[in-house]
Protein: dGTP triphosphohydrolase
Amino acid sequence: MNIRKLRLHDTDNTLSSEDRDEYEKDYARLIQSPAFRRLQGKSQVFGAGSGDYYRTRLTHSIEVSQIAREVARRLSKTYSFLANNEHPGLMLLPEVVECASLAHDLGHPPFGHKGEEVLDHILRERHGISYEGNAQNFRILMFLEKRAGSERGLDLSAAVLLAINKYPYCLNHPSKMKGVYPMEWAGISYLRDLWGMPDGCSTLEAQLMDLCDDIAYSTHDIEDGIRAGKILLSEDFFQDDWLVDGVVGEIMNDPASMESVQWAKTDLKAMVTRVLEDYYRQWHSVFVQYGRESSRTRREMKARWVSRFASAVGIIDDPKSGWKRVTFVKDGAEDLEMLRIMEILKKVAWVTMIKDFRVQRLQKRSENMLKRLWDSLQHIETGRLILPPDWVQSYERQKEEWPWERLVADYIAGMTDAYAEKVYTELFASRIGSIYERD
Structure:
């Protein structure tokens, strides 16, 4: 038995065609799923529908998958141990990383990170449970989505499931803020034990997917910010104390960032200033090179930075865990300088766009909508009257395993931005929905 291709609910592969490789089946199941299609209507940075230029969760996921697949292909040629099949978690198949990248954001609710924040706050405050986007990925993939022959999700292969599992923890542990809900953790834990995965360590495929997500975030979101006029390509803007201090503040208030890239060993403000100045100088050089054409310069800058980051990815031994780690590598050691540069660019996107007062207004509006939607659905006696019948039927079949509030979170989290606004409008505004509309 190939334990990388094992499926939890179809161990003998009797419910799918034998004409394709197992990872090809995973790819087809993912891209043809409603959850994947709905990503086109979920915000990345700018709200879905803000304009046909800006990225959505769908285009972001596709871009991550392209970067990850190409890096996996290069690493497979560079590191000979990957071909030795030493351990199922120490392999890097491009098709597995591609599938994981396509699925990594399925659990995000409408309205981006604000939606996740609101749902988590409601569930923790009122019900003592959490909402977490990475955990919701597995709830979708292992339970909510349906396919022919399966009542339990898409039944993806073990390799793809564990490549999505970048936080290999159960969320019932009080110290863990990210991980997998207990119901789905049973299956993930079974696979990890079967593979002999070290505690707290993720597969190389999961690590690569996660790093390529950061590469995309730190480059593509800046491209969108420049296009939207939120990031101004002028020397004054990049030397502005407001921007420098904002980036420094975001890093210092991010414990994970402070620990992972060892900021304590560097002059943080000086490095932020230097990286911003270097970015502007490079922009100006490319701008002149391409005839002062902003659109072409913007795309060229994005391409160069993606290439710079992607070509620096490597694999090192991790003495702390005794496992291996996918990271930026230079001269056989972790390249902390490159990690810090990427982190600075990620925070530039956050400070200039997410912190923008107009975006904050939209996020406050989104928060109000989600809270009122929740209030309308939170009581089973009245909430079941306004939920689609198939959701109520699903709850009745499974209510011994999960409570009503988890169903409500699943329903709201699955909404696109536009659908959340539609339901809100039907409940609280003057618009009257037709009984013939399909939910």
